[in-house]
């Protein structure tokens, strides 16, 4: 029970990032920059408490991973701007799950037993169905009628999700499949890389605006989710921790609709519910696959 309670924290923390940051405002680059500042302060606090040893190789790969993460997060913020939080977040999570699982199974041989292939394939099919229904648009939506550019924005959102997924998956593969570091040890080098990555994306044209400072609290939220993800994995196992963390899309969808006023027709709400249900079942099945 304790492990499940721990797992609820990253679910809420990570699921809230999108709509809180968009409620605060700022450009995607400002959101990413502010978030990385908060993440760095959080990482410094963790380092002062835990005081792990930091080797040169930890710094090098931690910074590289942080830069890749910044690319992923910036792409996600751009996608939210074009598509809305309630659409972009589930698509982003789904893309990472589908492509990441395929890479793990086909390249790194993570699926070795027949039951893993059966459950894994069913999960991927459900995620693809979730993709379709989560992104489906109703021609009667007033937002589509108000702007002739709305459809082109949606295509821009998909392009942003493409490089976001590459960034996120690259950093995940680096830390999970190529190198193996303690999360408490790598969090500071990674936070430095995240900040550096956001500066590179801004072409070092730094402006410490109000939205940047406010978005730094979102970075602290990200760090809290990371720590509790570790606690959840230790208490309840990786399968539970992983599955619950993916359920953050429920929070992001609800937040986008309730707090950001993203308009959905009855048809779109129905399609979104079907897509969300497919995402949840697919994520839980992938969590079971990981437990073998």
Q: What features would you describe in this structure?
A:
This protein has 292 residues and is mostly helical. The chain has one domain (2-291). Helices cover 84% and strands 0% of the residues. The protein has helices spanning 2-24, 28-50, 56-83, 85-106, 114-135, 142-146, 150-178, 183-201, 210-236, 238-246, 248-258, 266-291. The two termini are 21 Å apart. It is a multi-pass membrane protein. The chain crosses the membrane at residues 6-25, 32-50, 56-75, 87-108, 114-133, 154-175, 181-204, 216-234, 240-260, 269-289.
Keywords:
mainly alpha, carbohydrate transmembrane transporter activity, 292 residues
Query: How far apart are the termini?
Result: 21 Å
- For the secondary structure, the number of strands is 0
Q: Give the helix proportion (percent range).
A: over 70%
Number of continuous helical runs: 12
Q: Give the class from helix and strand content and strand pairing.
A: mainly alpha
What is the radius of gyration? 19 Å
- Uncertain runs: none
On the 0 to 100 scale, the average pLDDT is 85
- Give the CA-based shape: globular
The number of domains: 1
Percent range for β-strand residues: under 5%
Sequence of secondary-structure elements: HHHHHHHHHHHH
Organism: Streptococcus chenjunshii
Pfam family, one: Sugar_transport
GO molecular function, one term: carbohydrate transmembrane transporter activity
Family: Belongs to the GRP transporter (TC 2.A.7.5) family.
């Amino acid at each position: 029970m304790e492990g499940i309670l721990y797992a609820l924290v990253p679910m809420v923390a990570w699921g809230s990032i999108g709509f809180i940051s968009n409620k605060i405002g700022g450009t995607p680059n400002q959101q990413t920059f502010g978030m990385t500042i908060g993440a760095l302060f959080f990482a410094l606090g963790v380092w002062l408490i835990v005081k792990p040893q930091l080797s040169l190789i930890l710094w090098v790969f931690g910074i590289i991973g942080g830069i890749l993460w910044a690319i992923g997060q910036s792409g996600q913020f751009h996608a939210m701007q074009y598509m809305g939080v309630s659409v972009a977040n589930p698509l982003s999570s789904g893309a990472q799950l589908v492509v990441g699982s395929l890479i793990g199974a086909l390249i790194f041989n993570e699926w070795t037993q027949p039951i893993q292939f059966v459950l894994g394939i069913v999960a991927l099919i459900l995620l693809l169905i979730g993709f379709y229904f989560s992104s489906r648009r109703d021609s009667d939506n007033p937002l589509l009628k108000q702007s002739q550019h709305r459809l082109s924005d949606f295509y821009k959102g998909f392009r942003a999700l493409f490089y976001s997924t590459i960034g996120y998956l690259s950093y995940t593969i680096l830390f999970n499949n190529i190198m193996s570091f303690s999360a408490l040890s790598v969090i500071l080098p990674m936070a430095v890389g995240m900040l550096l990555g956001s500066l590179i994306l801004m072409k070092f044209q730094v402006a410490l605006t109000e939205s940047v400072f406010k978005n730094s609290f979102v970075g602290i939220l990200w760090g809290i989710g990371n720590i509790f993800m570790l606690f959840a994995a230790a208490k309840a196992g990786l399968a539970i921790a992983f599955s619950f963390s993916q359920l953050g899309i429920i929070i992001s969808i609800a937040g986008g609709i309730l707090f950001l006023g993203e308009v959905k027709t009855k048809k779109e709400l129905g399609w979104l519910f079907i897509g969300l249900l497919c995402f949840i079942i697919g994520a839980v099945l992938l969590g079971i696959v990981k437990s073998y």
